[in-house]
Amino acid sequence: xxxxxxxxxxxxxxxxxxxxxxxxxxxxxxxxxxxxxxxxxxxxxxxxxxxxxxxxxxxxxxxxxxxxxxxxxxxxxxxxxxxxxxxxxxxxxxxxxxxxxxxxxxxxxxxxxxxxxxxxxxxxxxxxxxxxxxxxxxxxxxxxxxxxxxxxxxxxxxxxxxxxxxxxxxxxxxxxxxxxxxxxxxxxxxxxxxxxxxxxxxxxxxxxxxxxxxxxxxxxxxxxxxxxxxxxxxxxxxxxxxxxxxxxxxxxxxxxxxxxxxxxxxxxxxxxxxxxxxxxxxxxxxxxxxxxxxxxxxxxxxxxxxxxxxxxxxxxxxxxxxxxxxxxxxxxxxxxxxxxxxxxxxxxxxxxxxxxxxxxxxxxxxxxxxxxxxxxxxxxxxxxxxxxxxxxxxxxxxxxxxxxxxxxxxxxxxxxxxxxxxxxxxxxxxxxxxxxxxxxxxx
Length: 443
Prior knowledge:
CATH topology of the largest domain: 2-enoyl-CoA Hydratase, Chain A, domain 1
CATH class of the largest domain: Alpha Beta
Strand order of the largest sheet: 1-6-7-8-2-3-4-5
Number of domains: 3
Largest sheet: 8 strands, antiparallel
């Protein structure tokens, strides 16, 4: 899956052909995933999902979802296909036996700092897909940091060492969680420590300055949303919309996520917005504060602006020294109606992850102009992993191609019109990107 600045596991059942993991439908056997470093082992009615490196074999962070039957597992001949309606799709081939490192129960739970360092380093070495793109020599990192870890290294010291080792990746999908602290290799801007509060302050400021012409009363808080006159402009807790002026609509999407109602919740929200803008001349879509979520939600939202089916992007996972086959994704018209008039998409360096898939999908539509900054450049799903000491972490193991065939990981999706995202100006009600879009419309 992607992220929204807090790494959360979400895997759900998606198909009539899916079978519960803890089921006698599974014969005894062992399957190895293509990419992703996972082993699925069924024995005497118990199914285990294991994270494997060349030096370790650990119960997967996804095991709880597997036990609950929320992990979609489809049998296709001898192969298993592990599925998720949002982003994940992993095929697994049968193997004769568990790998040697999984024998006798696999890697034991342990606080041994040297063991935990080795598992952490090898996981990145075998799964991370962007060392060269991020300008990091991982072997050099080992040579620098491994001597710092001894049997006497404390948990706090180990956390500091691992954090320092991944810091040069500058990847928002590389995160480390411990019971006492957490670390992301992407340095968040100060305002983003509370992005929702800033967004509401931003809407208030530009409304008061008359810049975006939303007008009316601005109520701060998720439960009330933005009001224009007597009409509530809260499509969902994550989608705000309104008229900037007659015939010009504005919608701010704060995350490519739902609040518990699944894809149906998001579809209902965006359909409400599109219905309100049905007769409008132009619409401005703002994802400058959108830190991501789920690819499927990004494509769902983009479908309401699609004029016809168009190729949006493809992706593959690292698989040893190569990659799994690339899967193609398309943006396709869906819902009762679509808005295919003049559309402007506002982006920033904080537009991240699934919001970048939305940008890829919107960018192939001929009536859409992207204005702002290159996006953050973190496209891979965040692959969840664990350490023998119980700590969890995530990393980027996938590669995405945009429709033009280019890889924009670490670079970000480029806008059609470049306008810097200047927080002090925006907080003061001076929004150059929004004004640029309005100038094109008014012109």
